[in-house]
Design goal:
homodimer; 349 residues; alpha/beta; 434 Repressor (Amino-terminal Domain); Rossmann fold; 3 domains; 6-stranded mixed sheet; 14 helices; DNA-binding
DNA sequence: TGACAATATTGGAACGTTCCAATTATTTTG
DNA sequence: CAAAATAATTGGAACGTTCCAATATTGTCA
């Protein structure tokens, strides 16, 4: 079972041409005669030749390997899985292949993974940075002229393009919807307070409360892991307050689902006894019961736009950073009850 | 902004040594003097050198690039996301980097992605094959001596190792649990009937019914997409039957969640009015309300074992295929009601 | 001090490809 | 039919690394 690597030279010998000709065939050059091309291709198939991109890249240090690296911080969150699928759609049709890696919020891992992708000569990188990523972590990459687009989270000070969603506006719209339904005590549930995304959504939440003439009470802001389990814990704490909230804007959909679970565990029905709004509009939001009212970020669409941004940058060759803020819209479903409940709630006051 | 690539020769010149010495430093060879090593490393940092793995691999065609390729057929299914995370854990601690790619069940895409990974000289491949994958699709890979492990699904006739879960036993155990609770009309919901996994689970379902002295009625087997939406549709059809089932084994957890949603939409409470059993034990199964009774496949654990299998094969260098069937166990939670309901149900007959 | 071993360092060939300039074969043109 | 134009093919140098064998430096001991 000795594996001898098949090279262009083997092909050349077997086809009775020179290695240069084989190389031209591989690049689909128009310079080569139709008959020879067919002959060479036949031999290639016959001998089971595998193109050695390493060797090729060595020679043509300019033309990169048709690979886009995608690095995300939490693959178990389906938001990122869908983001990746969105990226894949456009990356694919542009003739690239996407290699995805997960950091699980580990900075060390992120460094390793990015280094490894770089060594393999990726054409560009889409990064949802792990918490605590600094501009210096990306510096060498951009200095080397590798196009980078940050997504979901920004890295302060880094001169790279970014695609984030309008968290402030989304949270504002969601809370305004809740106040419009007559809610006066509205909690903000879940998320890590030291992240930019948390902060943007929280600011939008607070601004909407102020706009509605309500005061933002600190005890109604309850951080937690941005996961389903975190949501359960957060809503539990919210319900243990002396004066309970009647509604909550959740950091993301995972937290919102957790909040629904937590409510049911306390024999309360989400959408009836308590209004829940999520953030992201994950695919399950529509089919869950009750269907989740949530701020739609459209992860797939976001992935597509991010990929387009990156491709534009790859093709242009220039590197002036561009920050796109994706618009966002509130999708009203069943988890907040209807306006009919409003009278009832107001009557209680 | 002209990017000149920094090479070992530049380093050598700047450090006043030969390129060979720099190479030795890069490989952390013990042959080089401590002082020179420090000097060289300093220069490397200073000039922002990036290791060119392409060139390295070219020379040492044996030692592969420390990369494990993972190709899955549906990244939006969180089962695969968790599988990938499990793989990552062991792959990572073995000093490898995982590159993940998604095929979305497209055979063409799968071909492209595998080819691309191969060109980059992956050390091994873990593949959850797209539907319709044939042994010939893997032939060239194994012929070239690249270790391959199939996971979740097998490819008939392919001489590669595989790691699948004991679908027959799991389904059997689940259904036996249901018959033990007194259920007599048990549906099998979701999944595509033309897949091996479906078949194995279905056979386990049928065998358990027979063992319990019940006959398996065809109308109770309702296929659908193996997704949440598919589960909603399937349970809907089940409830429209003249003689309704009182329980269901679902193809996977996603279908089971969908079934719960569908039940609620019809004002039935899963776990009380209807027993639901899932398959996979996805991470949300525990925190959902009601907590899902399901056959635990432990995707992370499965990922870990798969990765171990692959690493073993990479290190051994030999390629004798090994088929591991992961054991599986029923995790009883709240979605089936308790034995207390059994008397009630039997009383009705 | 000379002989030997141990420790550090090095030049050059090789890996599989692409590119360039040069060459050969074929066709067109005056 | 020679000359020019075009089409097809080719050998060799380069890309950045590792490996090998060889050399240079230092240390040890009788």
């Amino acid at each position: 079972m000795v594996k001898e690597r098949v090279t262009v030279i083997d092909i050349a010998r077997a086809a009775g041409v020179s290695k240069s000709t084989v190389s031209l065939v591989l690049q689909a050059s128009p310079l080569v005669n139709e008959a020879t091309r067919a002959k060479v291709n036949a031999v290639i198939r016959e001998l089971g030749y595998v193109y050695n991109r390493g060797a090729a890249n060595l020679r043509q240090s300019n033309a990169k390997s048709k690979i886009i690296g995608v690095v995300v911080n939490d693959l178990t969150n389906s938001f990122f899985a869908e983001l990746a699928v969105g990226i894949d759609m456009v990356v694919q049709s542009a003739g690239y292949v996407q290699f995805l890696a997960n950091t699980g919020e580990s900075l060390d891992r992120q460094r390793e993974v990015i280094a490894s992708m770089r060594e393999h000569g990726i054409s560009g990188l889409i990064l949802s940075p792990a918490r605590g990523t600094e501009a210096s972590d990306l510096k060498s990459l951009v200095a080397a002229g590798v196009p980078v687009v940050n997504v979901v989270r920004q890295v302060p000070g880094a001169k790279v393009s970014s695609m984030i969603s309008d968290n402030h506006a989304g949270a504002h719209e969601a809370v305004t919807h809740l106040t419009g339904l007559g809610h006066r005590r509205i909690a903000f549930l879940g998320g890590f307070p030291d992240t930019a995304v948390f902060n943007e959504r929280f600011q939008g939440y607070r601004a909407a409360l102020v706009d509605a003439g309500l005061e933002a009470s600190g005890e109604l802001v309850i951080g937690s892991a941005p996961s389903r389990a975190g949501g359960v814990a957060a809503v539990e704490r919210a319900l243990s307050l002396a004066v309970q909230p009647t509604a909550a804007l959740c950091f993301n959909d995972a937290v919102a689902f957790g909040a629904c679970d937590g409510l049911r565990a306390k024999r309360m029905e989400p959408g009836v006894d308590f209004a829940v709004v999520g953030f992201d509009d994950v695919i399950e939001a529509k089919t869950a019961v009750p269907a989740l009212t949530t701020v739609s970020v459209d992860p797939q669409g976001m992935g597509r736009r991010t990929a387009q941004l990156l491709l534009k940058q790859i093709n242009a060759g220039k590197a002036d950073a561009e920050a796109i803020v994706g618009s966002v819209r509130l999708v009203i479903r069943q988890s907040c009850g209807s306006a009919a409940d409003k009278r009832e709630r107001l009557a209680l006051i």
